[in-house]
Amino acid sequence: MNLLSFSLILTGVLLNAAAQLLLKAGTNAVGHFEYSRDNILPIGWQLATEPHIFGGLSFYVVSVVVWIMALSRVEVSIAYPMLSIGYVVNAMAAWWLFGEAVSLTRLAGIGVIIVGVYIVARS
């Protein structure tokens, strides 16, 4: 895998991770809501107009374009496992930004993911 291919994959992964974090920030801003027929329009409007959610959806759109560019250069059996890097990024960013717990068990799982991505990338 050359530098351009790896850069496209990494950019797609990071955009996808950022999208998830923005969606989480948006849902935090909207707050907890009940699923009911009466809430469809008011909550739907809140979600549709929340800037973080709009940003997250925008990042997803851009990440799909970048991902398509990456897939045109790299075998899907190599590219797709690289999405696991997003788990690592999101776990660390969620800990830092939202105060989410990162237990020893999660850290061990993150370590396994890192080793797995390294093995796939070297193949």
In short:
This protein is mainly α and 123 residues long. It is built from 6 helices and no strands. Keywords: Cell membrane, Membrane, Transmembrane, Transmembrane helix.
Q: Using only CA atoms, what is the Rg?
A: 17 Å
Outline, from the CA principal axes? globular
Distance between the termini: 10 Å
Could you give a short account of the major beta sheet?
none
User: Which class best fits the helix and strand makeup?
Assistant: mainly alpha
Q: How many distinct folded domains?
A: 1
Total number of beta strands: 0
- Number of DSSP helical runs: 6
What is the average per-residue confidence, as pLDDT, rounded to a whole number?
91
SSE pattern: HHHHHH
- Residue fraction in strands: under 5%
Outline the low-pLDDT stretches: none
Helix proportion range:
over 70%
Family: Belongs to the drug/metabolite transporter (DMT) superfamily. Small multidrug resistance (SMR) (TC 2.A.7.1) family.
Pfam families: Multi_Drug_Res
GO molecular function, one term: transmembrane transporter activity
Main location: membrane
Task: Name the descriptors.
mainly alpha
Question: What would you say this structure looks like, in words?
Answer:
Helix 1 (3-30) runs antiparallel to helix 3 (51-71), helix 1 (3-30) packs parallel to helix 5 (85-98) and helix 5 (85-98) runs antiparallel to helix 6 (104-122). The longest helix is centred in the N-terminal third of the chain and has 28 residues, at 3-30. The N and C termini lie close together (10 Å). The protein has one domain (3-122). The model has no long low-confidence stretch (mean pLDDT 91). The chain is 80% helix and 0% strand. The protein is mostly helical. It has helices spanning 3-30, 40-49, 51-71, 76-82, 85-98, 104-122.
